[in-house]
Amino acid sequence: MSHTPSVAEADLAKIIRSEPARGRFRILRWLSVIIGFVLIAGGFLWLRAGSPADALPRFQTTTVSRGDLRVTVSATGQLAPVNEVDVGSEQSGTVKEVFVDYNDRVKKGQVLARLDLSKLQDAIAKAKAELASAEAKVLQTVATVKEARANLGRLRQVAKLSGGKVPSSADLETAEATLQRANADEASARAAVDVARAALRSNETDLSKASILSPIDGVVLSRAVEPGQTVAASLQVTVLFKLAENLSQMELQVDVDEADVGQVHAGQSAAFTVDAYPNRQFPARISLVRFGSETVDNVVSYKTILNVDNDDLSLRPGMTATAEIVTAERQDVLLVPNAALRFTPPRPAANDAPKGGGGLLASLLPRPPRPPDTKVASTTPDKSAAQQVWVLREGQPTPVAVTVGQSDGRMTEVTSAELEAGASVITARMSSKP
Fold first, then answer.
1. Is the peptide bond before 167 cis (omega within 30 degrees of 0)?
2. Residue 153's domain spans which residues?
3. Cα(29)–Cα(23) distance, rounded to whole angstroms?
4. Which phi and psi angles does 225 have, rounded to 5°?
C-alpha cells in the first residue's frame, strides 16, 4: 500500500534541501568582502609608498658657467650745461629794447637788452655840474690862501722894521689863523672835487649797467623780459636771461644712493639713456662724487657729476636720464646664479615616522603636516660669511665650499677647488610626485 506525502511533509523536505545552498552563499559573500578589502588596502599602501625613486626629493639645478661679469650701479638725474649763467639787472628801470631771443648764440660783451637811459643821463649831467662847481670852489680857496699868506707876510715885515712895536701880537695871531682857515678851506674844496668825481664815475657805471651784456660766449636758454617791462632791482637780482656756455660739453647730475656710494668714484665709466632716444645709449665718465649729502623723503643720496660729450647737440638741458655706472668688471671668471648661494636643503622633520614601521594601521592613519622648508631670507650673498653651494651626488645634495667675489644681482663670481665650469648646482627644491 503506497504512502502519499502530505502537504506538511512536502514543505519540510523543501526547507531541508534549501539550507545547504544558503550556507554556501553566505560563505561566498563574506569571502568576497574580505578579498575586496585586502585589495583596496594593498592598493592604498602601494600608492602611498610609491617606488624608491619617487620617494627621493627632486631639485632644480643650473650649470656653472665661466664668463665675464659686469657690476653696475643705477642712478637717475638730469642733464645740465657745464657752465650755466643767470643774467640779471643791477639797475631799476624800464626795459627799452631786447636784442636776443631763445636759442640765439651770443658773444661775450654782446648787448642782450637795454633799459631806458634818460634818468641815468640826467644823473650824469648833474654829477658833471657838481664836479665843475667843486673844482671852481678849489680855485676860490686857492686864491684865499694866497691872500691870507700875503697879508701875514706883510704884517711880519712891518713888525721887523718897527722892532716889534707894530703891529700888535693880536694882529699877527689873527693873520696866522686866517691863513690856516684858508688852507683848510682849500683842502675841503679839493675833497669835494674827489667826491663829485666819484659820483660822476658811479653814475657812468650805472649808465653802462643799463645795457645788459652777455658775460660768456654761449646760447640763450631762456628769456624772461619784454620791452616796456619794469625791472625792480632789490636785494635779489631779477634773472632776465639764462645762458649756457657750451652745449657740446654737458654734465649729468645723478643721485647715488648711500648704499652704493662706496662703490662709486671719479674716473669710472657709465652709460645712460633718455626718454627722447630710448634705443640709444650715451657714454659718460664720472668727474666728481660730492661729499655733501642730500635728503629727500628720508632717502639719503650723494650728487655725482658725469661728463658727457654732446657734439651733435642731441641732448638738451633738463632731460631726465637713467645711468648705469660700471663699478667693477671681471673677465673669464666662474659664475653661479645667486639662487644657488641662497639655497639650503630642508632639514628632515623630527616627527616623521620611520620608513616601513607602524604596520597597516599606521599606514592608513594620516600623518601630521611637514614643517616648512628652511630658506635663507637674504637676496644678496654675504661676502663676510662662509659660503657654499650644493651639488647632487648619488641623488643627495652635497655642500661645496666657495669664495664669493663680485655680484651683479643675478650672477656671482666664485672660486673653489671643488667646483668647475659645467658642474650642476642646486638652485631650488621641487615638489615631490604624489
1. yes
2. 117-209
3. 10
4. -150, 145
